[in-house]
Structures are given as C-alpha cells and as structure tokens.
Task: inverse folding
C-alpha cells in the first residue's frame, strides 16, 4: 500500500455516533484525548433510549459532543462542516438491515445515498484529511468463492441495502479521483457484542430464549457467518483512521483492482477470518445463558446469503492486524452486558 502517512488528529466527526460501532469507536478515540463530534438523529428504527444509554455509558466527558442531525439534511450537514474543522470523518451512519430494505427502500436512499453525498461534499469543501466509511460484507451478494476478497468483483448485490453500500464505494472513489479526497472503505462482517443492535440475531436470540420463546432460524439453520466482535472492529477502524491512503502506482486500468486505485482510495474487509455455523453460534449462546433454545426452522429470507467469510490478508499486510476474538469470549461478554442492562 502506498500511503500519505499519518497526521495529527485533534477532532473526528463520527456519523452514527450513538450507534453500536460509533459509540464504541468514540470511546476509544476519547481515551486517546481526541475530541469526538457525534452526528446522530436518534431515529426510531430501534429504541432511541438504547442509543442515549450507549452515549451516556461509553462517551461521557468534555471531549464528546452529540449533534442531533439527520444525515440527509443537506444544509444542516453543510453548516456543521462550515462551523467545525475535522481532520478525519468516520461515516458509520446508515439505514441498516437487509430485511428492512424490502419493506422501506426509501429509507436506504435517504440515508445511505443522499446522506453519503452530503458527507462527501462536506469533506471536499472543508479539507478533511481522511474519510473512513462503513461498507458491508453484504456487497459480496451472489459471490460464492470463499473467503470473500476485496480484489473480487462485487457487481451482483442481492438486496437494496447491499446495493447502497456498493454505491458508497463507487461514490467515494469518484471523490478520491476528482478531488483527491483520501477515502477508505471498510467492509464489516456480522458485528456483535455489548450494546449491540436489537435487530441483530444475538440480541433477538437472547431476548427470546430468556423469555422462553422460540427463536427464528433461517434456511433451516444452514447458515455460516464470519462473526466479528465489536472490539476487533473498533481496533481495525482505529488503525485505519491513522493511516491515510495514497494512490497506488501499480494500479493498471487494463486490469483494474477493485480494492485500490491510482487515486487515494482503498477497501478492506474487517472480519474474524473464520466462518462459523449459525447452529454453533446458538449453541455457545445456550451455554452462556444456561438455557436451551426452542428453534423455529424457517426458509431462507429474500436478500439474505447462506455464508460470509472474510479474507483479511490486506488488513494484516497494511496494518499488522487480524481480528481474533472467539465466540465463547464475545458471546459471554454480550450476555453479561445484556443481563446487567436489562437487570435480569
């Protein structure tokens, strides 16, 4: 990787700063003495109180500021960039969820497309030194060659959510090419852990098992995921923030590498590099809870994929980092948090 090196970071804008990954990342940056401005509109896709509680628990102190603003508010976002200078922007705000994209597609356009353009424009006009943004393992779509590599073509998404994340990567490259804006896209793989989202499997399974209700297991349990613990994701993002990409002098338009460019643009997977069977995930959760799950076996859901598995060789090469938290450790930490938070 050719890069522009590191540079002093005093203030970071995190969009989705009250979200699962955003609040944990803010905590890490604040611990380093870096000021964090968290943009989050606290929408009701899931309980806004959980978002408020995340911020209260993880991000207290004078170095943290919450800005209640919708990413799709063009003038509001522009005004924020005019009012404050950010060395780095980390775009984690998104309308998440594959299945919800079948129900409310316009939410994905408003946040993931319109909102992302607003961020790109803000970075362009205010001289931001590095834009790091969340992509997703969902961009691999119909790909079946494992493990998924950032060097593979990903032109066959199977959900609007995935298409919107692929669009983010294309939009970022355009701004890197036209305006020299350094951008790094991170494809996250099934993030889980304390303070996680209530629409994610671990949260849903835990709530149902403790309530003596059946859990919904799709594709009759024949699913595999590269489950990645939240601390591993944050460590990866933290390292990426501090290293600004430069143009790749070996990039060749005759044989274009999707993961790099002659422009200051890079893509990386952040995953555990270890696909786990969904039924084993449930088994570990059962042990942590001390209860057996009643499973309601269901067919595959539209827009879903059977397996994900991250190739993280580029992450290891460029950042000397490989996620590695085991399911036993990660799920136990989530269960401990869940019982404390809900006083169970």
Result:
């Amino acid at each position: 990787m050719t890069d522009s090196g590191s540079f002093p970071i005093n203030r970071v804008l995190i969009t989705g700063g009250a979200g699962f990954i955003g609040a944990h990342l803010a905590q890490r940056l604040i611990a380093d003495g870096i000021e964090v401005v968290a943009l989050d509109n606290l929408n009701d896709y899931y309980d806004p109180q959980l978002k408020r509680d995340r911020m209260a628990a993880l991000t207290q102190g004078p170095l943290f500021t919450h800005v209640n603003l919708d990413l799709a508010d063009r003038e509001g976002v522009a005004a924020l960039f005019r009012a404050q200078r950010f060395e780095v922007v980390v775009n984690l705000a998104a309308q998440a969820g594959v299945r919800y994209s079948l129900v409310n597609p316009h939410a994905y356009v408003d946040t993931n497309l319109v909102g992302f353009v607003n961020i790109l424009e803000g970075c362009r006009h205010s001289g931001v030194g590095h834009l790091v943004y969340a992509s997703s393992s969902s961009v691999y779509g119909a790909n079946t060659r494992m493990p998924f590599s950032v060097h593979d073509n990903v032109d066959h998404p199977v959900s609007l959510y995935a298409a919107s994340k692929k669009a983010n990567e294309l939009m970022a490259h355009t701004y890197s090419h036209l305006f020299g804006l350094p951008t790094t896209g991170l494809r996250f793989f099934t993030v889980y852990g304390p303070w996680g989202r209530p629409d994610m499997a671990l949260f849903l399974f835990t709530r149902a098992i403790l309530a003596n209700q059946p859990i919904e297991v799709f594709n009759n349990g024949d699913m595999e995921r590269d489950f990645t613990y939240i601390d591993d994701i944050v460590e990866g993002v933290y390292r990426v923030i501090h290293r600004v990409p430069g143009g790749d002098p070996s990039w060749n338009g005759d044989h274009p590498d999707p993961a790099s460019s002659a422009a200051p643009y890079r893509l990386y997977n952040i995953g555990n590099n270890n696909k786990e069977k969904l039924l084993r995930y449930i088994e570990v959760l059962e042990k942590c809870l001390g209860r057996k799950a009643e499973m309601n076996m269901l067919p595959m859901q539209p827009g879903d994929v059977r397996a994900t598995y991250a190739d993280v060789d580029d992450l290891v090469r460029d950042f000397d980092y490989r996620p590695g938290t085991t399911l036993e450790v990660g799920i136990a930490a989530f269960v401990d948090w869940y019982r404390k938070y809900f006083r169970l």
About this structure: The two ends are 48 Å apart (CA to CA).
